[in-house]
Structure formats: C-alpha cells, structure tokens
Known about the structure:
The structure holds 2 protein chains of 2 kinds. Chain A is mainly α. Chain A is elongated, with a radius of gyration of 20 Å. In chain A, helix 1 (10-30) runs antiparallel to helix 2 and helix 2 (34-58) packs antiparallel against helix 3 (76-105). Chain A has 3 helices and no strands. Chain A has helices at residues 10-30, 34-58, 76-105. Chain B is mainly α. In chain B, helix 17 packs parallel to helix 21 (519-534) and helix 18 (456-469) packs across helix 23 (565-591). Chain B is globular. The model of chain B is unreliable at 390-412 and 600-611 (pLDDT under 50). The chains are: A mainly alpha, B mainly alpha.
Amino acid sequence: MHGIQPGVPLGYYLTLSAVLFVIGVAGVIVKRNPIVIFMCVELMLNAVNLTLVAFSRYQSTLTPAGTLTSPQHYLDGQMMVIFVMAVAAAEVSVGLGILVSIFRQRTSISVDEIDLMRG
Amino acid sequence: MSSEFSIAWLIPLFPLIGFLINGLFGSKTKKFAGILATAAVFASFVIAYILFTKVQSLDEGHKQVTVFLAPWLSNFMIGAADPTGIKPLQVNFELLIDPLSCLMMLIITGVGGLIHLYSISYMAADKGFARFFTYLNLFVFFMLLLVMGNNLPILFIGWEGVGLCSYLLIGFFYEKKSAGDAAKKAFIMNRIGDVGVLIGMFMLFQYFGTLDFYKGQADIDGIVTAAKNLPAITTGTTITVICLMLFFGATGKSAQVPLYTWLPDAMEGPTPVSALIHAATMVTAGVYMVSRLHSLFELSDTAMMVICATGLFTALWAALIGLAQNDIKRVLAYSTVSQLGYMFAACGAGMFAAGMYHVMTHAFFKACLFLGSGSVIHAVEHAMHAKHAHGHGDEADVAHAEHGDSHDAHAIPAGGPDPHDPQDMRNMGGLGGKIRITFLTMSAATLAIAGIWPFAGFWSKDEILWRLYNVHSPLNVLIWGVGAITALITAFYMFRMIMKTFFGQPRTEAAKNAHESSPLMTGPLVLLALLSFSTGWLVAPFEKFREFLAPSVETPGYTPTILKPELEHTLGFGLMAVIIVVIVACYLAYRSSKNNELLAPATRANHSVLSAGWIYNVLLNKYFIDELNNLTWVRGGKNLSQWLWKTFDVGVVDGIVNGVAGVTAWIGSGLRKTQTGYVRSYALTMALGIIAVLLLILAPFAHGVK
C-alpha cells in the first residue's frame, strides 16, 4: 500500500471484524432467547461497520502521482456506516415490537416454540 | 387462343349451382329440384359440345388448351436456386381442354343428363327427392373437375369428391343398415386405393418437378410432355413404382382385383346411381387417369404388363361370378367389373384409344342396361305393392328402397328367392310382352355388350381383342384367349339375364301384373339403346375416334403392336360367330320346355346337371372373397386398433402423463420435509447458503496468498 499508513496493519482490523461477524452468526443460530438473537444481529452489523470504516481509512491515499491527498475524498465507507447504524436502529425497534406482540400470547420466550409453519 | 375456351369454367359451375340451390333450398324446391338439376347438367352438355367442336377445329400439335382460373399452391422459391433441395411447387386451378377431356365431358354430361331425366320419374315417390338430385349434381361437378383438371391435385379433388358422392348416394336409403354398410365399404376401399395415388403423386413431383399434365401457367413442361421426351433408357424402377402406385389407386376407383368387392354391394343404392356412378362415370376415372398419363405408363413395360394382366384377370374373374347371380343388378355389377377389366387390358396393351372407345360404348350400353333394370324393378315392385298395399302412402319411400343380397357375414344358400324381392330374377319371367320398350332397349344393349355386329360393343370389344392378339409377347394367343373366353361368358350371362327376366312364363303374381314405365324413363332408354346400336358405324367409327383422340393418348414412336390386317376380320367375326352360337343355345335351352320345366326348383334339384354343385356355390358366393377380406383385413384392423388402444394409448401414453404427475407429487412430498417450522434451522440454512454463494462469486478472484 502507498502513502502514510497508521501503525496497525489493515489486516488486523479485518480479522477482528470477521471474528466478531462469525460470533454474531453463531449466536443467531445457537441461541434460543430472541433478545440475545437481536444482540447477535447487532454484533454482526457492527462488525461490518468496523470493516467499512477500516477500508475507508486505509484506502484513502490513491492518486496517479502517488502523493497523499486529503482523506475527505474517500469518506464513502464512513457515510455507509452512518446509514447502517440508522437501519440497525430501525430494524431493532421493529423487531422488538414483533417480539413483544408474539410473547404477549405465550408464556415461554424460546424461539424454538414458534413452529406453526411446520409442513 | 385460350380466351375462346375460357367458357370452360362454366361446365363444372352449372352442376355446382344446382347442388347449392337444391342443397340449401331443397325443402322449397321439392318437385322442381329434378328439373333444375337436369337443366344444369344439360347446360353443361351444351357448353361441352361447343368446346368439342372448337377442339376439333384446332390444328394438330396444339390440341391441348389450358384455361387458367386461379393460383392455388406455390412455395415462394420459384426460379431461385434452392440449397435445401426442396423443389419449387406450383399448382394452379387450371383446366385442360383437349380431345380426351372433351370426350369425357361429353360422356359425363350427356349420359349423366339422361340419367337425371330418368331419375325425375324413378325417384318421384321418394321423400328424399331433392336430396337425391343434390348429391347427383355434386357428383357431376366433382367428376367434371376430375376430367378437366390440368394437374394431378385437381384430378385428386375430383377423385375424392366422387368417392364422397358415391358414399352419399349408395347410402341414400340410410335407414337400411345394409345400405350404410355398403356405402362405408365403397368409400373405405376407394380410400385405400387413394394411398396409391398420393404416393404416386409425391414421387411424380420428386421426379418431374411438376404435377401438371401439360404446360400451363407454371411454364414448366408437364408430366405427359416430359415423359414423352424421356428416352426409355433413363427410366428405371422409380417410374415403375410410380405407375404401379397410380394403378393401385385406379384399381380402387375402377373396381379391379383386389379392390373390387365394393361395387356389387354398391347396388344398394338407387338404380340411377348405379347407372351413373358405377357404369358410366366414376368407375371409368381409373381408365381416364391411366390414359391421361399414357406416356408415363408407356415408359415402364412392367407396369403395362401388370395393368394388362390385372385387367384380363378381373374380366374373367368377375364374369364367372356374374354367371351365378340371381339379383338382376348384381349381374350388371359384375358385368361392369368385367368390362372395366377389358378397358385396362387395352390400356396395358398400349392401345389407350381402344380402352377409351370401350369406355364410351360401355357408358352407353351399361347405362341403358342399368336404367332398363330399374324400369323392370319398378314394374315388378309396383305390381307387388299393388297386390298388398291398401292406402299406405308413406310406405312408398321405404318400399322404394332397393332390396339386395345384403350379406357380408353369411354365405348365400342356394335356395329359393325371397318372394318380396323385386330385384331377384327368379321372381320375374315373361315380362317381354308387358314392358315392351324396356324389353327392346335392354335387348339392344345386351346385344351390344355381347359384341354382336353392328352394335357398339362389337366394334370396341373387337378392337381390344385384336390389339391383345397383337401384343409383343410370346403369350399373345393366351392373352387373346382369356379375353375371348370372357367375351363368351359375358354373352352367356347377359342373355341368361334377358331370358330369365323377359322370356318364358311369369313365375310370380307380380310378374304377371307388371306394366310399362313413364316416358321420362323410357325416353332415355330409347336414346341410349339407339346410341348402343349406332355407335361404331353411324356415330364415331373407331378410326375417326382414334384420329380424334390421338393427340391425347398416343406417343409418336411407341408402337406396341404389329398389325396383321388380314387376320383382323377373321378373328373378329369368328369370335362373333361363336358368341351367336352360345346365345342361340341359351335361347333354345330356355324355350325348349313348356312352362319352363327346367327352371322349376323341383326339377332342378333332381337334375344332376342343373343342381347346385360346389362350383355353383363358389360362384354364387363370389369365391368367398368377402369372407376372406373380413377375416384378414377387417379383423386384423380391429385387432390392431384394440392393441393400439389398450396397450399403447392407455398403457404407454396415459402412463407417461400420469407418471409425470406422479413424479411431481413424489418430489413435492420429499421437499415438504424441509418445512420444519423451526426458525433456527432456517437461520442455519440461510447462513450456509450465503457462504456457498460467496465462495462461488469470489472463486474466480482467488490468486493465492501474496
């Protein structure tokens, strides 16, 4: 990579994101409690946010002459993170609403018990 | 030049108009239907005669005139080089006016018109009067199309059309099961022959590139012209196969062996139908087709031999059956088959003009015979019903239905006649004094068919036998001999018919009270009898006829026979002398005892010579051919149908369709098991799916770790 780099290599950020993402996926699949599942979904989204920000910071120095330019030109990743956060917030509010309405009908809060679509 | 022949399209038009008016408004025209139909046919005759005189005045070498009416089929690659190998096809609605078609037109409209006239009186009591004339006019229309077309598809339209009309007319008395069966039999056997015509047509197109007879609008040399120009060396099995296929079609239409058994059963139809269709016109369509394509047939010696042999064989075969029949119409039916055999024998021997001459004379005397037999049946029937019926007016139409020996399934026992059958000759006798005109005209026609000088049949039959004698073959005497023996048998059974019907003492009450028919019936009879008498010497002697017809049926350079003129008259008159001896012997046998002792059943049973031996039984039952056909073809066809239905249609086809549905259901029930309703398994499946898709997308970008 060209130009001034921060000290920590990009790969470390990406690895961290990947690990966080996989933990999130595992949590969604394994956990029975819907609140925990939501938290894991948030974890996945934030892992992706981290990836986007990392790329936005590290991919900001490319010009034909190879000189450093102002990082403001390459803020796409950071802008997308703002969007993702907004979407995550909306999604959680809708999801928690669904959760509350389902669990008003039942006593249990286990996801395994919702099998009315069983063929 | 073709502009003055352009009125030709009126000839088929008039019967077509008659058909439409009678067909659509038959219930309103009622009695007028007959006059309308007859007028239509006579109008066509007038125009045909005009064209005939015009054709005679054309110069030699240009005797074929085509009249273009409308384009029909063409594929659009005409003139372009065609890489796919499909030849350009152009078939037009085109009429051909030349000596042969003029001859046929005159016969069809002339004899047809007389038969229409006769039918006005004959069918007067029938409630299907208008329907009858509708069908008759339709028949004349199709038959005219057949003979006037310049190409094979038009001929085929007419061919199929007359087959259809034959079905409609044979099955005219549709309440009778036997009539319906006979109609089906006729139509189906005709159609079997049509396969031959179709295959012949396909192969002809493949070989010549055109289906026209002579060059017309399409500007390609027609088949007849092209075949004349082909040197004999270039032809091979293709032409022979084409000719044999076309001839197979002709055997179906013209009732030769093996497709002849429909013709005797076709006597279930009204007698004018038998006269028109099965004597004068439809059955001659096969002979016409062979004569029209004469140059094609001349290219193949094998085919000519087959035609000649089949014709002679049929002539003898049918003549023998005719000997034993008791129904007056059946005798005439077998006689027709036999005479058609003569025509084909002549064509096969290379003398198409002789064959066509016999067509013409046969039309005259056979129509006269059939119409006369109708008159006889009418007379006897009315006498029978005058005895029984007291005021049953509506019985007339059913009563009018022709009774026939309706037996496909059972053999005819050699017993006594059904006393109510007006067609059985054993119920007749002594009618000569009572129905004089019919007697005299039928006798004239019988003398003609037996070949007695100077009646028409002498000239035509003699010509044919003479040509047969002169065929280029070591077997020529045998060929001639078969023809001669058939002539003797013909004379015998025809005179047997006359004797049984008109001579001796009346054998039943009905025969005693018979009376002559109306002038509308006797008029045509007289005219046809006069023609049977005078054709050959007063009207159209053979040399002039041949000269007239030569541009249509003769190929320059083809001489199949050597003429030894000194033998010609010897053979002819010698044969006639033998025939006269046979006739006289016949007459004496029937008159030798008073009250016809010889014919009384009791005497016959005791008399060893006259009793019904096995030969008589075989002949009476038509060699059991119908039963044989039934066993092999009909049963075979039914079994095939059954197998195709049960095993193939229900088993295989339905099995496949049901099988597809079954497989779908099975897959469905398998897939059903993935719907667990278990959210976490859905989530896992989703995750695995995403991983798989990502791997697939990113796989091309993998370059190894740097």
